[in-house]
Amino acid sequence: MAVGTTERGALTHPDIERLDDVNRDVLKMLSVPGKGWWALFAMCVAGVGLFLSAWFWQIYKGIGVSGLMSPVGWGVYITTFVFWVGIGHAGTLISAILFLFRAPWRQSIYRAAEGMTVFAVMTAGLFPLIHVGRVWHAYWLIPYPNSRFLWPNFKSPLVWDVFAVTTYFTVSAVFFYLGTIPDVAAARDRATGLRRKLYGAISLGWQGTDKQWHHFGKAYIFLAALATPLVLSVHSVVSWDFAMSIVPGWHATIFAPYFVAGAVFSGVAMVITLLAPLRKIFGLEAYLTVKHFDAMAKLCLFTSLVVLYAYLSEFFLAWYSGEDPERHAFWNRLFGTYWWATWTMLVCNGFVPVMLWFKRVRHSIPALFVISIFINIGMWFERYVIVVTSLHNEYEPFAWGIYRPSVIEMSIMVGSFFWFGFWFLLFTRLLPPIAIQELKEVLPPPMRKKKSSEVAEAHQ
Amino acid sequence: MSAQGILASYEYLDSTVDAIENLRKAGFDDIKAYAPYPEHHIEHALGYGQSPVRVWTLVGALTGTSTAFAFTSWTSVEWPLVVGGKPIISIPAFIPIVFEMSVLFGALSTVIGLFVLSKLPNIKPAVVYDPEFTAGRYGVYVEADGSRLEEARRIMNAEEPIELREGSADA
Lengths: 460, 171
What we know:
By secondary structure, chain A is mainly α.
């Protein structure tokens, strides 16, 4: 902590005066919800109903109610799976990678971003189960001693994916929970009755003693150091689900970095989509400042350039390779049956973010909100383009086919957004959605006589 | 079991740090400090070194690495089947799983280490405790009795605490 060099907090949060102001403002969010929250929550409950009933219908009737049919065996479910795993990546980027880099703007957004990660990965994890159809056999994914002495094929990227996604979910949930312990203790100390007991149990009797903080700080750094390569590995492994097979349009070494950049891109956009209304509803202008949104917009801009570069290099290399199936795959993307999906992807991910070059746009939160929605749509279509256009025209023209998502598939896809929203809304009311203790670390500490810089010098 | 002690709540960081340093100079060793966020100055004043959590992380991660290597190799040998033209024990193809398991075991063992070292869950929380410690106040608790208690009280009072209370922090 560079306390000695600058007065901490003065730059990022000029409007917060005292340490306990943070408790007051953040814990206020946990009080009785307003009408707006209930309206959104009711909408999400209805959406979860749609999600579950569509899924139950598919379980009852069989996977035939989806549009999946040879040659396109992967469709909206896998697209949405990749989309949600990708969304999760920004949360870990903000909570772990930017933590290790000591980025001064992460504190107030990281808790919400990390919550988003946990719920997004939780949502993503459902999609392979939905996709396999016979969900009651889902435990076959896990290696366990069985009567036929069969083990999963550990050389298969699909098995790697099981390990990557379950590890990612476990580690990010643990990381998320650990970070909330001191803040839930703060909520406990202000609460009464049942809430007090509940928060007391969740915070495990945390009191903020020197010993607790000492070990907590170190454990947190190590978890961040583990989560950092983990998050990069997860979307790399997801990309190998595609890149390891010899389907034209999938079999490319660029896939791992391309997927990771795309994941961060879509995830940061989702953080903007979630935080812009949160800031407005809860009046968090002192905490989520324009500077934070500016920094996130820059991250979006950077990753959009990486993603655009990957698109262009894919097109170039398809032409340069001289391979007919590869050339056809990319020509077909731009001008074939699914041209509209490809162009949506290119416009939303490559051209709309160009506006982020302008400071006026980056400093306008409504503008960022609209751009972030475009990016979310574009990134969903990116995965749709990769999955569907590659499969529907592979090598032999007699085996080509067209895939049309069914109503059930679309209901489950749309319903998953409500399922995610359901958990996220509950989170904003039950756990402090802004990291109380981490924010205090960047605020100037209260001093009786000396400036904090002098205390720092005294201890050098 | 319940030793006598005294708890001071401070509004300012420098008063807290001074109180801790003066108590240590006067020979008090059993000092417990409270803070609303991890404060390095307090840790310095208490003379903290490295946290042994890192050992838990390393041991956990290495356990994960070796478990995953052993498991993937053993299951491949147990039912030898050539897949994708790769050797039965194909180390490069096992690396993703080995990596994920290292991270998983390392992370979980870090958390277990944290819980063991900082005695969480803390089922019997302190008797003297100020709920403002999670909001904006710092605290210092010293275990002492008789004349030592009076001395501690004098040192703590010199730094103008908001509140001074006697009792025991650990039941």
